[in-house]
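quick one, 702 residues, struct below
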Amino acid sequence: MELHHVLIPFSHCTTIVIAENHAPIQNIFPESGPTILATNRKYRDPFSNQIESKFPLVRRLILFPHCWAFFSILPEIDWTFPKVLDHNVTKFGYRERFLLDRYFRYEPYFISKNWPNQYFIWVSRIWRKIQNYLRPVVIWNKDMFGMYEIIIVPAAYDEHGENLILIGNNKTFELHFQNFYYLSNDLSSETGGYTNAWEPISCNAPNPHKCFQEIERIKKLIAERNKYFWKSVTFEIKYTEENIIDKIHTIKLSQHTGQVKLYKIANLATLDEFTTFLIFENFVNYNQSKVTNRHVFTSRESLEAAFASVLRPPDVSYIMDDVETFSFVSCYKVRPEVSFASALSAPFDGYIWIFLSSSFAAVVLLLKYLTERDMLDGILFTGGVCFEISLLADYTLKATRLLSTSGKFKLYYILALWTILCGVVLPNWYKTSFTMELIVPVKLSSPWKTIMNVKGVQVIIPFARFLDKARMEFNIKRHKRIAAFYEELKERLRELIRYEGDLKLFLEYKNVAYSLWLTTMNLRSQTAQENRTWDEISIHPIEYNDTTVLIKSLNSCGKIAMMDLKENVRLILPFLNDNKNGIVYEKGDDTFFSGIRGWRVVPVRGNYAEKTLKVLLSSGIYSYWEKWFKRVKPEKLFHHYANWTHPVNDAVSLLDYNSKIVTAFLVCGICLGVCGTAFVMEMKNAVLSKFLCRKFIYRVFK
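---
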């Protein structure tokens, strides 16, 4: 059968035929479907953009989804393909993996392995040798293939030795589909899957679309078996002596089916471990001792950590959970934002004061216009009414002497309206609001909006923010934990340093990140850590049980702050403010270390872990358990290790009312002083008038 028949089932795919110049490809091109022929090729730079970024993916109404088909004609003569005949197969396939990985990565026409629907069809005369060569790689290095589907097509030269033909009869030819989840016969009955390492598929040349449908059917059935090939790194690292899986298994067996008390299981693990259990709950009983090279399901981690293991764009995807927001707490330059003027103006906001000033000026102008008296009289009357001074009768008597009847009516209307609103309602409203403001604690302010912009600042960050719980609880020396902390820190700083945009905020972050990078270099060894002084390093790790160190550092109220997750800072702040020294700490938000947290997902056909995780997220099950863990098993913060549960100092004595009380007494004293001065002057005038009157009468009647 002619060679072009093998291309027809993939005619709807982006088809690329790879062949050497001397390969027999005379009869390779089918009658339908465009085909790209690649002959003269060079190694591709692995750091450059791959070919998929240059192809538009336009959605069309076709029977099959878009796919990629890479045909290699006689790969055994391809200079980029591993030399199958020149090597003996190793047990664990390390050498084979290296050669195949180089082949997939450096071939200029291949695309990333995390793209679905990719078919590698190798038309070969030594197809059995290639199958034997791939066997250890498939068993021990499944993740290397990603979403690639390997198909081998047996071929041979015709009787003349000129053209390459497919092995088969006139109407059918055979394909061999790679079963990546092949298990031995004793395990196949448990998993209900295929037992062949290569599944044969007979293709009928007159009906090529049916051949592709059969390929898709077998591909899906094989992909469903990936659920048996998973493991969790979290369990393996933490529970080396005490296996949590066995404990969970015991709890499940001790309860009736369908009535498993998940709360008992949740008490055994952390949220990440319990999430892993929910995903693989149905396979707790399954014996995986004979399953080799399982896919790895990692716990939740930051986006930077998920993509930090490689220098080139990694072949993994990412499921986002939430955005980590950071806050900080410090007492650096924390002062009450109150003054004499602000205390007097506090009952009303700025808009009310502007409105009152405008009304005051308008009334003064109207009184001058109606009475034609001096403006000073109008100002004294309007202000006196506001201060509840009895000037209405005297002013009205003087102002209405020369007015007509209509003029008097207008004047009385204005005076009545102003007296009721600004002489009765407004003063009482103001006095009530002013009295209420006295019992409200003083607002504190700080000169900084974000702590990372303060020059020379020292920031304390808990280990748990940059190190996962497995490494936190694993028994490693402190200097190694510090080194791991700074390595994770530098991964976050590296992303900020690489910023090439023109946004002002991120440019500032870039400069700050670069200065922090310089201070955190060469801190891997214990000697290097001990030789650096406190001031030489801007970021300092701390354990949650180092409460004494934290309080001693922050109590200086210098350029130092503690930074943690926003929710943790909210819980820690009352503990820090409960001190006998009266030191007040303020919190603020900082987006410098904000990041995304989620799950790294390796490219796997029909990824069971990814599908189940998305169900947990979209259904609200994960959200429910996340809230349950925060309520029942909260993270142990600084106040937990200090045995602090509630304020021990008198809350009323710690509140600062002094500035407002002083202002109130000052206002009262000024008013009493003015009233006393007026009283003395009035008495003096009265006594003087009485004396002069008596003296005048005495002289008249003498």
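Residues 451-606 form one domain.
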